[in-house]
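Progress narrative, Year 2. Work on Antitoxin VbhA domain-containing protein from Skermania pinensis advanced from sequence curation to structure prediction during this period.
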Amino acid sequence: MSALVASAIEQHLRNRATADYLTEYEQRGGAFTADEIDEAEAIWRRAEAAEKAWHADAG
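Result:
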């Protein structure tokens, strides 16, 4: 199996596990509020920017 395919499968499985966890979390504690979603999106944007910068520095 190529590294590209293995990476794609790994990412898919990670995304699926995250989606399943979030569904379970919301079933136990209720839906996320708009503020919680906004905060999570901001955290995600910062993490993606940091990863992009890391890749730029490494390359």
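Residues 49 and 55 are 10 Å apart (CA to CA). The chain is about 90% helix and 0% strand.
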